[in-house]
Queue: 4 jobs
Job 1
Amino acid sequence: MTDQLTEGAEATGRRRASFHPLEVSEVRRLTNDAIEVTFAVPPALADEYDYIPGQYVALRAQLPGSDAEVRRSYSICAVPQRFEDGSSEIRVAIKKDLGGVFSTWANEHLAPGDTLDVMSPAGAFISKHKMTGLNDPTSIDTEREHTFVAVAAGSGITPVIAIAKTVLAANENVRFDLVYANKAAMDVMFVEELADLKDKYPSRFALHHVLSREQRISPLLSGRVDAEKLTTLLNTVIHADDVDEWFLCGPFELVQLVRDTLAARGVEPEKVRFELFTTGTPTNLEGNIGRPIVEDESGKNFDIEFRLDGLSGVVKSPAAANETILNAALRVRPDVPFACAGGVCGTCRAKLVKGTVDMAENYALEPDELERGYVLTCQSRPTSDAVSVDFDA
């Protein structure tokens, strides 16, 4: 692994995505509707699958009985490690979603020995505190005390548990508070691992389970997390005024509620890290396979140029089609990187080199990335006659 790759990943948590077939080595049942899937990474690919706790991978598959390719993103739920033979592994949790084609298939049929295409790790839901090596959690700054707080719901625990395990093990001066919301006790993912963390770090790890459909002894930990309950938690349970970094992961409504509440309390935006599993409006999945578009010879067309892996591509996009740059690029280059196509993961980001675009949603790019001209191609549509983007930048 080159120093340049390491430095780039430290700075942004992002690198060029590539898929490789990996074998499933274990499938472990977490709840009635969630599994943990372990992929074996051979020594030859171990460097490509190094990751920073909090990052995700995309899984790509063609399901039985379907001609369509399906891609879904899942956060990595384990601490990075290498084995004696130089191999490693990637662990993700897959929770069955209502109507979710891939998650339902995985929960019902995925088994050890199966092979799926797994994207190299990506994502910026990582600590901004010192973590200098992609696969070296012991390099975290241990010279000063750190206080972290995470608010997660449902499968939002997946990246959070990897972050918590890493920072607690690496720095004896770390305190970590976790508010974890679920419908009921039977829905709690990684219940044993969370209990083990509490036993291992009784004075440094505080776990607050909030169950919306089960009565707990404390009324504060029962019912849905709304603005009033969140404010009470921050005022009485969590030392909210001296937190070094916040990690928020879950559905849009909860994450936005916490962000708004923290902003109202004067918490600097730079201290708040967040990741969405849904945006609340998952109605536009355009770009999943590149929907068919017919160029309009007589009407107005946008000229879209893009650079990927050192090669340039050009495609015309009819103005009447209201097509995203990602969808247009996929029609001529099916290897254009993307995962969620919903503005959440950031896999499809590219630098806008020429022209102007309208970006409908952005839940992935940091403010400094926007300032440097990066856009999410799955959400960006041309607003000038010619547009050029660089996926390699």
Job 2
Amino acid sequence: MDNHSEEQTVRYQKNIPVRKETDVFVAGGGPAGVAAAVAAARAGRRVFLVEQFPALGGAAVNMLVPGFMTFGDGVHFLADGIGREIRDRIRAAAPERFAKYCPDSIPAEILKNICDDLLQEAGAEFVFYTSVVDAAVSDGAIEYVVCAGKSGLFAVKASVYIDCTGDGELSFFAGAESEYGDETGRVMAATLCGVWSGMEDSAVSGPDRSRLEEAFRDGVFQNEDRHLPGMWRLLAQSAPGVPDGVAGSNAGHVYDVDPRDSESLTRGIVRGRRQLQEYRTYYRRYVSGYENAELIASAPYLGIREGRRVVCDYRLTLEDFLHRSVFPDEIGRYCYNIDIHSPTNDATGYEKFITEHTGYRLNAGESYGIPYRSLAVKGLKNLLVAGKCVCTDRYMQSSLRVMPGCYITGQAAGTAAAVLCGQQETDVHRADVREIQKRLLQLGAYLPNARREDT
């Protein structure tokens, strides 16, 4: 149950304009939303996307998450199609990133421009500073969504809607069922990322926990968090011996944050900003090569690892990961390890994370399938989900939630929406999966188990 269910209510009624009528409406401009919008628009559909932040790209640009996770399984490029295109454009724009330092770190400003270009080239319309705040449902289908922008409230009507909000907000407003957290209702801890300068290149090689216990004894941290993902190199130092390298931090946890609640998010980001100053002290005093480290900026939003998991026609589970499952309606495959950060700051939670993080991994060349049914929202005829709120258990959500996984499901959702509109069929549960797979293969998607005749 979402928060504030027992609050006093008032009746509010107002006529609002229908600002857009389109084929495909996309809520959210993160990696899933970008891929969905581009896929649908390239198929000739009218697309309208709304994004609450002033940039496309999601956590990479708005939460300053410093690095992509794996695009492939060591043998195959799994996030193929639009995901590969984005990575190739980054390589072309910043070849030194691959040649000199970390190829999986994210040049946020370059990525913003790439996402803008992709949507504009495809002909997809988009607007920033705008959020979905409600949805009107009639006879099991979304009739229109209500958006809030700088000029006020307005409605958008579409044939097919795609929820790429990360936290399943459009699905929630439409009355879809969802799951949340573990058996106690707690979700993975959040992190406030930052951008740092003054590092020596040799120091930015991974998390350095070697002196955390000493720092705890010295009272550096109010929150004694033993999980330290560390720094990603964003820009190499200019000359040997000059500690002016730039890095992005994914350091420290902010516990007990409910991403569905603005008050909880407010308390969390205040704690996160204070905590980053404690990490400044830690790096400068205790870690070699960081003596001149300086926090340039903290992200404007918390990095949220886990929110609602929307209930769809199929729920991906840990068994699918372990069995490297194959599905007849497969729309992609992925391989990232199980990565559930503890919701509690204690030894038991940290030890469980280490055990699962190292124990649930696939070998090179191995992956699990993602069925189309995990994108088709149960109980609603014209709503698909993509990104980290697709239908999974907590284990699979922790694998599929990362950016390359979001490119895969977003590309599939956009393609499915385009096929549905082209066939004048708006019931996502009756989609022509063979045609969706055919179109995905044409986009370059990795679908080794799809039938390829007539493609």
Job 3
Amino acid sequence: MKTTELLGEVAPDLARLERYMADYLENPEPVLKDASLHPLQAGGKRLRPALVFLAAKFHRYELEKLMPVAAGVEFMHMATLVHDDVIDQASTRRGWPTVNSRWGNKVSVLVGDHLFATAVDIIAKSSSNETIRLLAKCINEVVRGEIQQTNAAWRLDLTQDQYIERIGLKTASFFGACCHVGARISGAPDELSHQLERFGFEVGVAFQMMDDVLDINGETRDTGKPVGGDIQSGVLTLPVIYALRHSADRDHLAGLINSRAFNNGQLQDALEVVRKSGGVDYTLDLASQYVDQAKARLRDLPDHPAKETLNNIADFMANRPV
């Protein structure tokens, strides 16, 4: 589904957001300008700013108040991606060269810092201390999740609960925060803000689970990154955790992971063990449960076209191509 179809209710505002963000990244330093614009030009569905807009639709929608915050959360997201690509030594993202592959790690770290600072600057000029506090808390949770992921690298004893805690911090908390701040800026009551935050969190869990399935079952031309990249770097996701518990070939899989060095044949071997184990189907089923929980949060929300759009976003999480 195209972004304009999936996010139809706020598609015109997202188009305006693109121009707004590009203008805000104007800079007298050519390298900083070009490298900062690079991840913006790589595209993306802009789900996080879309959630800011959509969550505000149920109360008092004031685009001029929302636009800086929507831009700020996307700048924060871009900053985390730029830093992640340095950590992972990634050369492509969404089929687009990464900042570090074009300008090197030193410039990439500085660009990520610049994007974070730009996010704080734009939000501080237009919003309340509460919004800044909520988003700062969210970024701290993202960092905690990334640290957990780093500490759990190559660990064969990783549990499902630890995995869900990790993706809750590194992915889902950001989705939830976007819904929360959008609702709060619109003046929505606490209960409505809370329901939307929980919706965002549960959708975010499903989003990350589907991302992890795509790393096992996807195609590089669709995902824009090499298939099997997680397991190759020691990041054990739920399909792999399941296979290590239930596959008849779990000892073989454990041996491959313990080697910490996959040639292409060994990587394909490991992926095949995971696929045959039922781990992909198990993860898909669990992601669908989170989607159902998220959609249940919307039932008592006021009737508005944004409600259907949020339902469509939830369904998209459960039906991304695998």
Job 4
Amino acid sequence: MLTQIVNAKVLTPQGWIENGSVLMDGNKIADVMNNSQPVEGAEIVDAKGNVVAPGGIEIHVHGGGGRDFMEGTEEAFKVAVDAHLKHGTTAIFPTLSSSTVPMIEAAAETCTKIMNEDPNTPILGLHLEGHYLNMAMAGGQLPENIKNPDPAEYEPIINKWPCIKRWDAAPELPGAVEFGKFITSKGVLASIAHTQAEYKDVKAGWEAGFTHATHFYNAMTGVHKRREFKYEGTIESIYLHDDMTVELVADGIHVPPAMLKMVYKIKGVERTCAITDALAVAASDSQTAFDPRVIIEDGVCKLSDRSALAGSIATMDRLIRTMVQQAEIPLNDALRMISETPAKIMKVYDRKGSLEKGKDADVIMLDENLELCGVWSMGKLVDGTRKF
């Protein structure tokens, strides 16, 4: 089935096309044109000048619609994914907080089943945030699950479950360098997370394959003092590694807008992507978190003792608005930070992350206020998103 979006301001890798059109044939993009001449046999969607851009790629999200991926069930995965689809996330890497091995196995089994049975699923693989983290920087992670990297544990998991595409750890932990080398040798992204790493640790991590930083500025140290001397923190050390990519919880709360703008200016759009780090309460009417220690207050998830942020209630469309309207990031770059950059980080840019002929038909439409007015996932209009 042919669908053509016409009269659109289309974002392409070459820049904006004014009064352009996007032609979708089934689940693929058949063409991106610099005109709005109707194609014979196509269902016409009039964008009326609205922005048409690649769908959002979420590489760090714990749940949504009232369900958490840690539940490990098909129902939980489906509800959470569908909730984020309605907000512009057309590709997703479900994330587990620090978990036990049985929890990882259950989620990996579900993830594998869904990916094998549905070629059009938005799910592209599993992301493990922990459990090899620095206890002093645990934040909202479950402390009883945190430990040092153990090859007798992680090697069988990686070898058994190719659906695992990313695994986060603190590079200063004993065994973290060996962990990084092993998982990256298997094609898994290694990311620095929940850490007190100083420059030597970040450098060792980089050399071991840690090329990405988890929720930059959160659960990591900046410059600090021990007695009378100053020491570089994780943040400065990551800045000094020019090619290390970072992700930002761009809800305007985890990282204030001025700092979002600063990271964008220093790291650039090619090295910066936006994430929600959303918990189950995102895209949900519920005010009860999956983790009983967590409360929702001030538009964010916190530990009940207010000692740390514990995740967001943000959705992809909110990230776009925050970056543009509060952090003053140009719209084209904000859109690249939710599509092109995460696609390249996760090595799926051959089929996702931009509007180009032959790629998957993952498309979003935004009005002048950057509110969503249409989401297409693999060429299919997502229920409840039509506002054109």
